[in-house]
Amino acid sequence: MAEKHLFIGLDVGGTSVKMGLFDKGGELLGKGSVPTPPLIDADGYHAVTDGIAALLAAASESADNVNGIGLAIPCPVPADGVIRMQANIQINAPGLADALERACPAAAVKFENDANAAAMGELWAGSGKDYQSLVFVTLGTGVGGGVVVDGHVVGGVVGAGGEIGHLCMNSDEERTCGCGGKGHLEQYASATGIVASYKAECEQRGLEPVELEGPSDSRSVFAAASAGDEAAWAAIDTMCDYLGRALAIIACVVDPQAFVLGGGTSNSSNLFMERLLASYRRYAFAVSADTPIEIASLGNDAGIYGAAFVALQAAEDAA
Amino acid sequence: MAEKHLFIGLDVGGTSVKMGLFDKGGELLGKGSVPTPPLIDADGYHAVTDGIAALLAAASESADNVNGIGLAIPCPVPADGVIRMQANIQINAPGLADALERACPAAAVKFENDANAAAMGELWAGSGKDYQSLVFVTLGTGVGGGVVVDGHVVGGVVGAGGEIGHLCMNSDEERTCGCGGKGHLEQYASATGIVASYKAECEQRGLEPVELEGPSDSRSVFAAASAGDEAAWAAIDTMCDYLGRALAIIACVVDPQAFVLGGGTSNSSNLFMERLLASYRRYAFAVSADTPIEIASLGNDAGIYGAAFVALQAAEDAA
Asked: Which chain B residues contact residue A288 at CB under 8 A?
């Protein structure tokens, strides 16, 4: 009987751990999820390994056939593998890795930053699957990213590779980014940034903003733009101006085959893509002006795909 | 008798082709140079192969022991290897490669952009030799660069990888960069940019500038600063502000182990390094604030070292 090679991707978020079981070719064999426990003791580790057992049982697969488990986590993963910063989760990486290796004895365990994992997911099985290099940008509540060169993600020495949201685009900005810096891309191109720009544009025009469900409800701003709201279009133009220039800058650093946009805001690309492309081309170094800007295709599954893929790469590197 | 592995690096400039003969460990066994001919016909190719023959003869080595020849050239080298843009040189790459392969039958021939080659030279045998990833920035008449990740240079799909000089740093700039863009790093941080800033600062202050030997004589500006010229210090501050922010941006894309500065202006680093570091730290994403900024050590030889090293890598990849 031929040996089976299975890979599991875990996307560890603040509320749930999403799980996917994959074969070597990137086919999704099963999905599951468990509420995120504090991942710092045996109880927490068990919640995850129980979820994996259920995932394998549902697909009639054995834990012995799992050759890799990847974890997408919402914090930087430095080159030395020691995770220092944690924002929205509690995680003891070595303890969790041990528990996973006990549950699946043939599996290599690999941690990856969540945006980097999503980039690798798109490369493996999504919009990026024809590419060897791409820059993935996630436009959500914040702005994240992943840089892929020659089929591998550029994690960086301290894990800051692909931290696209924190490109300092405007040295004159007085407002502060969530990270403490000023004038970062995230302040203009995140859902929160779009809402802030919209409110400022309304105030400047003496207009009442449309009703917003919270500080990152960019969807309502896009809806307002669709309905002809001039302040909403101004906010979208600000986003496109900064994001287009940021992509032009990134092209002068790593010159990818394509940019791939994900995150909730990318669902409104029909409204902004033309403006974004015009902005990108205005700022791009001439030879890079035709680099395509595409939309991600895996949605919320990008993390589990990419986590499984980096585990597959780690298993191949170890072999 | 043990097989010898030799590598030749050619640095093709507008006036001369510099040549270096190296062993596999990066030891320089001999140097030479020939005036740059038009590299488009048999006469031009012979001028180079004759130079190589003389280099080998002087080191008492045989052409049969040469396993790779690398060429650093002053134009983008796209991933497909087809060189489309040529600025200061005339070169028929396939014809030259054929002639080199006939002269050294065991050699793989590899073309590389000159700034990328210099980055690889510093990685192999210069300031970067303890690193696997670095970003090299050459501060000369223009500003160039090379991005190294996991021991390999990031050339990019159209050869724009590491085109640091063309990061669009200032969308409000009205003056035009040599490439046709506006607000590029090169306009503030090149020797030409420093001189332009200095003249503008003098004019604003109603001061007479010091005597300058041409539009890129930044050395005289640094000398003026040393002598207490306030306008010269303002120009240096402008350079440090833009360059520091550019490095901070680059750290959010590829997060290297170090930045390495080369080119003529790097010789004045004793005057500007403290200001540059302060600027970098002001703009850097918090986790990247301690990434070191170092000075290149190979000077004008970086190109021949790096060209030989990329040829060595190509020979290893082919083996």
From this structure: 158, 160
